[in-house]
Amino acid sequence: MDLDGLDSQKQSEIDDATQVIKSPIDVPSILMEITKNEEQDDPFYVCDISDIIKRYEEWKAAMPRVATYYAVKCNDSRIVLEVLAALGIGFDCASKEEIRKVLSLGVQPDRIIFANPTKKISHLKFAAETAVTLMTFDSEVELQKIKKVYPSARLVIRIKYDDLSARYVLGQKYGCDHVIEAPGLLRVAASLGLNVVGVCFHIGSDSKDPLVFSKAIAAARHVFDVAANLGFKFKLLDIGGGYPGDKKKSIKEIGNIVNSALEKYFPDLSVEVISEPGRYYVNTAFTLATSINSVREAVQTDPETKDQTKVRMYYVDNSIYGALISIFCDEVYTPRPLEVDTTSPLRPSIVWGSTCDTCDKITKDVVLLPEMNISEWIFFEEAGAYTLSISCEFNGFATPKIHSVVDEEGWLKLTSQVPYPLSRDKFVIGNKPEYFRIGLTGPNKFKTNYF
To answer: Which entry of 47, 356, 359, 392 is annotated as an active-site residue?
Structure first.
């Protein structure tokens, strides 16, 4: 088939389609196939949809009582939202635009929690217009706003309970003290005639201490009891986010702690329990590939010892302002050569980003890498969380394109077995062209077996 003859709309459909691969997903092999095209020199992601499905199933097995509301801010790419919507999970939205994006997928408003304790008036009005009723608060000012704009909303009081070892501690910005402040806020809500239905907390993004979940659930129990004395009938507990997003950590440990705490403090199964995972679902599904556009040999002098080291500098086609922006928040990404020459000695190396900013340094310290050259590729695993959603195009470098793949089993689930099946038109399979573009000016042949 001549792709050059396709109209732009049809070409866009092929570009955005997810490839169905019969064999097990081997991301490095997929990266190699894509980079074989001589015209491919822009950075890109490979998103393994099968990994997202696997994470969903592992969660259900570990915490069957806890429904998930995906934190859209973590990665708001359309393919991710479509897959999670198909699986039937809910969504944690923080703004009008995030709500709009989720609703555009056909998701019903009762599958959304407006989980921003400080909402703009116009965003509250939009929630009211679109029947998104469930939302959080942690202050009297927020209660007054809701009373004025959306008095029929169902409210969830956010309490503060931090894991101080988490990568991002949130309690200094959001959440009320569950002993000192929560009772007063509930009394204000009662005086305003507002409908408070439950409690939420977030122990911190990328939490390190799972036991904090148990302590936070106990604190939520206290607020439930206070609310009952004030005449409220709480039926919702939101245990927030903070779940691991790397391959080496299992959700099982947190699951055991959460399950035990729920059994102890919330044995009444009529209480609905939800959560707001973000990086858990998407981080390991995304791999970033970027080419080397320049190489330089340099001598570095240690400021203390004055020792000199010859270092090989690699300049790649992405940056800490783009797909690797989480480096600003102390995230560490390990560069891996796509094609490894086992005979090449390891050299002290530094990987620099594509912008002209001297802060644009991808490897914080000198690392050992085999000797590589211009136009060779390196890749970074576990690049799905807080990358796409917060990157920018500083210095004019575009956001990498996403190339999504799924195995046969995942494809069957998404198109026939999930609560909200996806259309088969969203996939490149046997009855579709085997030639398609990957953000290129010409066709690219992807040789992995289809069925």
So the answer is: 356
